[in-house]
Specification:
Layout lengths: L1 E10 L4 H21 L6 E7 L2 E10 L5 E9 H4 L8 H9 L7 E6 L2 E10 L4 H15 L19 E8 L2 E2 L3 E2 L2 E2 L3 E3 L8 E3 L5 H10 L6 H16 L9 H8 L6 E6 L9 H12 L2 E4 L5 E9 L6 H26 L4 H4 L15 H21 L5 H13 L7 H5 L6 H10 L3 H9 L14 H20 L13 H15 L5 H10 L6 H30 L4 H8 L8 H14 L5 H15 L16 H22 L3 H22 L7 H19 L13
Antiparallel strand pairs: 1-3, 1-7, 2-3, 4-6, 5-6, 7-8, 9-10, 11-12, 13-15, 14-15
Helix pairs in contact: 1-4, 6-7, 8-9, 11-12, 11-16, 12-15, 12-16, 14-15, 15-16, 16-17, 16-18, 17-19, 18-19, 19-20, 20-21, 21-24, 22-24, 22-25, 23-24, 23-25
């Protein structure tokens, strides 16, 4: 027999961003505890609002499953005498397990014959197991920030005010710090305030009773209701919602979904649109109304947690709030334009960056130096022009100046964006203004990268400086902790290099970036940079490249093969090209032959203990001559294809040329002969064959072939 369980934690208002993670934890914790307590369940569903977190379980057995288990005891020789009677040790073991001695038996295991206790554990009624399970769930939910109240030892996102816990039609006798569970929940605090009795654990009934009292408890239903109301209000203006994150947030700020249309004075439209949208979305959680072409209208949508009975008053209240925000923004916009960005740069000396690393003025100089270094590297490979390098230097010089403006002080998320606006007002080159905004991109995982090469170079320099600075100070990400967003910065670097096709040597850029930091004396800098910091940061990038490409769907052994090629991954763009190539050829019929050739030559070639070259005079067998002749004929062509980044062509050519002669060599030639010179010469030959491929494409010894 089974029953359903309904459990609700009633609280004061929980922050919107905490709710979905908490609900996910509730479901996972209950599933885990149910398994621990031998309770099979049909389904678990969690939902909630700012004032309640609810768990609904279907098909929970009324009684725990009974089990029989064996417990290992002392050896048979100790537990029983020669006549087979239990000794004191055997009797003591039986007593410790709560069984009679006749339930002891001997069983042979790998260590010999041992005494085992067989005992049956009767299942308990689920109703009396649930208090412990539900208590563990409440204590097990973690939040970004928790609080305790009135000397309470329980930490939770917000104070707990009520518990509803029903199994079937019975109240679960759970109590948390003086709060006893019952069958009651509460309606909307402003629109109802009623105490609602829920007679049984019925999810549909629970939702229906709450809806009657102005609470839409289901998150999905509430989100759809909000989305529908906003869409209806926007449709006359040919506008639509373009911020799903904001929609998710407001869904978890309310219990009763409603929305109203408001407006503001059109005179505020002379402020940059990004400022108006930021004031609406980040500060007030309003939805801007924009035409399909992106033009902002003097309208906005406010989401309410109440009915429309006082809509007129509510509209006027929201309009007053936004007007005050926009009035401040207009003042900042007007005042900030009085000082040119270039005149603010000197004042960055008064804005600290990180301890021991000086000010943002010092950071600006480092970004300028590194940007120039990267730009000239790209000029050498015809990716940038000399004129571009001048624009890069100017953009790097101005990129942090907007941090001192009143607008960015009020709206920090607009850093870079306002720099672009002020640079345009100052008459800077459009490419420079754009690069100032772009150098922060990508700001989050799904954000775009800088579209311009100027912005990409400054963005790379900014991110490399941040990573180098943090590693130099020991501020390295650990586990889930990454306070300086170094993983995001590394992801941004990887994407910029990949999508712009920039060819840079990671080791060289890191060394240059680290050498600009004011932390090392000339005497110890080479050792610290070369032997410690550069390898550590490269290891960090290696881990990022592995994780990112696993998430993209690449096989882990293919990623490892490309990462562990002789040239490693210093050129990240080249690494990604090689990975894509071997992923493509791994689906070809000749792939197993290629892997076998590279793997066999690697396994034996690594034993070569000399750095010399192959000596034809030491060949003894025809297969040696054949293999070496084929190598000499094919080497230039294969290297040419590799240099031209034609990795798939190079791989197929390599396989076609070497598959048969390498197998013939291993069949006919004994490598490990007694003559050391002949042996090493054969090992060198195989190493040459291997490195022709594995040094610059991939180390296929990392590949796991299906059995």
């Amino acid at each position: 027999m089974t029953d359903d369980l309904l459990f609700e934690i009633g609280t004061e208002e929980i922050p919107a961003g905490y709710i979905i993670p908490a609900l996910n934890q509730m479901g996972a914790l209950f599933t885990e505890r149910a398994k621990k307590y031998r309770l099979e369940i049909r389904s678990v569903y969690c939902t909630g609002t700012p004032r309640r977190l609810a768990l609904f379980v279907e098909g929970l057995p009324q009684k725990q499953e009974s089990v029989t288990e064996e417990v290992l005891g002392p050896s048979a020789a100790i537990a029983f005498d020669k006549a087979g009677n239990p000794t004191k040790a055997g009797i003591g073991f039986a007593k410790s397990q709560g069984i009679d001695t006749h339930n002891l038996h001997i069983k042979k295991i790998s260590k010999g014959e041992y005494c085992f206790a067989t005992k049956k554990i009767e299942g308990q009624e689920t109703l009396y197991l649930l208090p412990d399970i539900l208590g563990e769930i409440i204590n097990g939910i973690s939040f970004p920030k928790s609080m305790k109240w009135k000397g309470n030892h329980l930490f939770f996102a917000r104070p707990i005010r009520s518990l509803l816990a029903i199994f079937g039609d019975k109240v679960v006798p759970v109590e948390i710090d003086g709060i006893k569970a019952n069958k009651y929940t509460f309606g909307h605090p402003f629109l109802s305030g009623k105490k609602i009795e829920v007679p049984k654990a019925d999810g549909n009934l629970y939702r229906q009773l709450l809806k009657q009292e102005k609470v839409v408890v289901d998150v999905t239903e509430r989100r759809e209701a909000v989305q529908t109301k906003i869409t209806q209000l926007m449709s006359p203006y040919d506008a639509s919602i373009d911020n799903d994150d904001l929609l998710d947030e407001v869904t978890n700020l309310i219990e009763y979904p409603n929305a109203i249309e408001c407006s503001f004075d059109e005179e505020f439209l002379d402020i940059p649109a990004d400022v108006i949208e930021t004031a609406m979305e980040e500060h007030q959680r309003y939805f801007p109304v924009k035409k399909r072409d992106g033009k902002l209208l003097a309208k906005f949508i406010a989401v309410l947690n109440r009915s429309e009975s006082s809509a007129h008053t509510t509209i006027r209240g929201n309009e007053r709030v936004l007007k005050a925000r926009l009035s401040d923004a207009r003042f900042f916009w007007k005042e900030d334009k009085k000082i040119q960005l270039e005149k603010r740069v000197e004042d960055l000396k008064n804005l600290s960056f990180l301890e021991k690393l000086g000010s943002y003025y010092d950071r600006t100089n480092r970004i300028m130096e590194l940007s120039s270094c990267i730009a000239h590297t790209l000029i050498n490979v015809n990716v940038l022009t000399i004129e571009d390098a001048a624009l890069v230097k100017r953009a790097a010089f101005l990129c942090k100046a907007d941090l001192l403006t009143q607008m960015v002080s009020e709206f920090p998320s607009l850093q870079g964006i306002m720099g672009k606006e002020y640079a345009g007002w100052d008459g800077e080159e459009p490419a420079v203004a754009l690069a100032i905004a772009e150098h922060y991109m990508p700001r989050y995982a799904t954000d775009n990268i800088p579209a311009s090469k100027i912005g990409a170079v400054v963005g790379l320099s900014d991110k490399f400086d941040t990573i180098s600075s943090c590693f130099a100070l020991g501020l390295i990400p650990t586990g889930s902790q990454d306070p300086y967003s170094l993983r995001r910065h590394a992801y941004g670097i990887i994407r910029i290099l990949e999508e712009h096709g920039f060819t840079l040597e990671l080791k060289d850029v890191l060394h240059r970036s680290l050498s600009l930091l004011p932390l090392f004396t000339k005497a110890d800098s080479d050792y610290i940079l070369h032997e410690k910091l550069v390898p550590d940061i490269k290891g960090f990038f290696k881990d990022r490249l592995f994780q990112i490409n696993i998430e993209r769907g690449y096989r882990y052994d293919l990623v490892n093969a490309a990462l562990n090629a002789g040239i490693e991954f210093d050129d990240i763009y080249n690494f990604l090209q090689r990975l894509k190539a071997i992923a493509n050829i791994s689906r070809e019929k000749w792939w197993p032959e290629l892997v076998t050739v590279v793997e066999r030559t690697f396994n034996i070639g690594k034993k070569a203990n000399t750095t010399g070259s192959v000596n034809e005079n030491l060949f003894r067998d025809a297969e040696e001559y054949t293999l070496w002749d084929m190598y000499k004929k094919a080497e230039a062509d294969i290297r040419k294809r590799i240099d031209e980044k034609k990795y798939e062509e190079a791989s197929e050519t390599y396989c076609n040329i070497f598959a048969k002669p390498v197998h013939a060599f291993f069949d006919k030639v004994f490598v490990n002969v007694e003559d050391e010179r002949v042996r090493n010469n054969r090992l060198l030959l195989l190493r040459e064959i291997n490195e022709l491929y594995s040094k610059k494409i991939a180390d296929l010894s990392q590949i796991i072939m299906p059995s």
